[in-house]
């Protein structure tokens, strides 16, 4: 199974200068928990999660409309995959970097989708595949991934996205 089999292609995005207020509104309207930040070429340069908004607001003691996305995403690497990547490789990347979402980029490094923990769970099969079943992700691989990214991590470590 490939990333393009499960990724979401209608991805909300914004510039790094977008306020957390506007990003939170986008999340509400699009029913999602993360918005990629992209540059002028539509290449991912960051990602803001609902958790980033909550913690950013609490720690900065400023209204959300005064805090820019780049302020809460600054310093964190953006880990991406490609549509033709095998889903097992994407799972390994999610686990290795302890993130819950991966922007998907095309050959020009432009954002073309996103794959999330929820997408992976949606394509997880229970039990053994039968002849004629569509290709699915094994329950074992999904559980290993969930176990790893949902575990408690040391304070000061990488923030899970």
From TrEMBL:
Domain CBS stretches: 7-64, 74-130
SMART domains: CBS
Classification via InterPro entries: CBS_dom, CBS_dom_sf, Diverse_CBS-Domain
Assigned keywords, A-Z: CBS domain
Gene3D superfamilies in alphabetical order: CBS-domain
Pfam families: CBS
Superkingdom, natural source: Bacteria
PROSITE patterns noted in UniProt: CBS (PS51371)
Protein name per Swiss-Prot or TrEMBL: CBS domain-containing protein
Annotated organism of origin: Natronospira bacteriovora
């Amino acid at each position: 199974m490939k990333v393009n089999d499960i990724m979401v292609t209608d991805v909300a995005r914004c510039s790094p200068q977008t306020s957390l207020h506007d990003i939170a509104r986008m999340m509400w309207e699009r029913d999602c928990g993360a918005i990629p930040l992209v540059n002028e070429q539509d290449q991912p340069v960051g990602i803001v999660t609902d958790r980033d908004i909550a913690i950013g607001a609490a720690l900065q003691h400023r209204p959300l409309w005064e805090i820019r996305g780049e302020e809460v995403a600054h310093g964190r690497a953006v880990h991406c995959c490609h549509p033709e990547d095998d889903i097992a490789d994407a799972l390994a990347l999610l686990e290795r970097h302890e993130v819950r979402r991966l922007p998907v980029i095309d050959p020009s490094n432009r954002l073309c989708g996103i794959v999330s923990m929820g997408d992976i769970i949606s394509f997880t099969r229970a039990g053994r595949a039968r002849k004629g079943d569509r290709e699915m992700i094994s329950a074992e691989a999904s559980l290993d991934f969930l176990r790893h990214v949902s575990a408690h991590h040391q304070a000061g470590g990488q923030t899970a996205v």
